């Protein structure tokens, strides 16, 4: 481990280089751009073993990774916002073909109006795509999640694609002090596919046509597979903690502090919430693994609590709430309220969060407040 | 923890200054954080960037609202932006100007940059001024090392000279 100061994007690129993907398909989009930029630097300096394909769109990027991954090699890309939206159709192909693709989503608002800044609407809108979704609180955790993601994705009990989500600008464009591993080959050995993979010497078909019954069964199997990934996610987290000395709660959720009131959120805003939790005496439940949703862990954390407030940077349009709230709501019969914050990159400072936390007691069960 | 806010115009390198300062502080053995307030990236538009320097790990994720120090790369901004906004009581204000401003540190960074670098790129010179005005919250050695790392070769050397010259040429005007 080497302690250094680095921009979040550059820390991710450095770790990706060490993870040694064979095929990287890149179509840069703000705020994910610095990741492919740095990886291109590595390539031109002869420090990247894999091949970067400069594709003509994010749709092509994900399609190229599906093709590459189906031949049994390790793959990577990074994207944001409209880029992820353009991948939408192919994301479902990747998960149903059980391809262990790993991508970094540098979270950014969706158009319209055009906005390049951070919120979670892009990845939240892909929550039902059959991908595993992990959210990091800071650059250190995002870098660590990248390492864990390949182990999870390529585990033969899982074989699913993973998106590692990091808040755009707040993390991607911020210099922070982080520990960067020097070598990852021990923890993430080269990918050796044991399941179906394309090989001219062993002709086969993947992801082709299916009639009603097999289609129905395969979709059921996909849901079971996403759910079954949860114990592996926790196992890999624990093993990572043992090897690298950094732990993030139990792997699925990160419980911080004590209190009758619980605040649930994800990503970088949790740093400010934890500072406030120290001051005001509430508990923070940070959801690290959003899909599969760790419902049992959340239920246990919320048991017997006075109230739960969910803070999130996304909207489940038409439900009156954010998507995270709807998931958390299903885990408790107690009072639950919702704050929609930070859309379009709006800063969510500690004093604004303090004001919101002061409102929880007076709010009605099920109430949502949009707080600027 | 010390919080610094830079005011500049798009293209002047306010974000680079904040980042180089953070890297230099890290070289001094401190924890540091740096980021810009990104807008539509237009040359000439008012921009801000921020650096935090601390002996402890930094646990905060928000803009700097109450800076200990404000660094103004372009004095003409003071007509359109309240650069003193939120500046702590007794906080440090450093302005790139050839004139004296009551209660502020002044340095003619544009002149220094023209003399040393041959271009009106003032962001690095302002870091030299910060070294002086902050009574060495970051060392000159680390600043010059950080700038040479960021811009290897002649550009780094010249900027390094501008940093030292601005540190020497920075003066405070009493209220």
Quick structural summary:
The complex is a heterodimer of chains A (372) and B (175). By secondary structure, chain A is of the alpha/beta class.
Features:
heterodimer; A: 372 residues; Rossmann fold; 2 domains; seven-stranded mixed beta sheet; 11 helices; 15 strands; globular; B: 175 residues; alpha/beta; Pyruvate-ferredoxin Oxidoreductase, domain 3; 34% helix; 23% strand
Structure description:
The complex is a heterodimer of chains A (372) and B (175). Chain A has 372 residues and is of the alpha/beta class. Chain A is built from 11 helices and 15 strands. In chain A, the strands form 3 sheets. Chain A has a 7-stranded mixed β-sheet, with helices on both faces. In chain A, strands 9-11-10-13-14-15 form a 6-stranded mixed β-sheet, sandwiched between helices. Chain A has a two-stranded antiparallel ribbon with strand order 1-8. In chain A, helix 3 packs parallel to helix 4. Chain B has a single domain, classed as 3-Layer(aba) Sandwich (Pyruvate-ferredoxin Oxidoreductase, domain 3), CATH 3.40.920.10. A 7-stranded mixed β-sheet of chain B has the order 2-3-1-4-5-6-7, with helices on one face. The model of chain B has no long low-confidence stretch (mean pLDDT 96). Chain B is an alpha/beta fold and 175 residues long. In chain B, helix 1 crosses helix 4 and helix 3 packs parallel to helix 5. Helix content of chain B is 34%, strand content 23%. Chains A and B meet through strand 1, strand 8 and helix 8 of A and helix 1 and strand 2 of B.
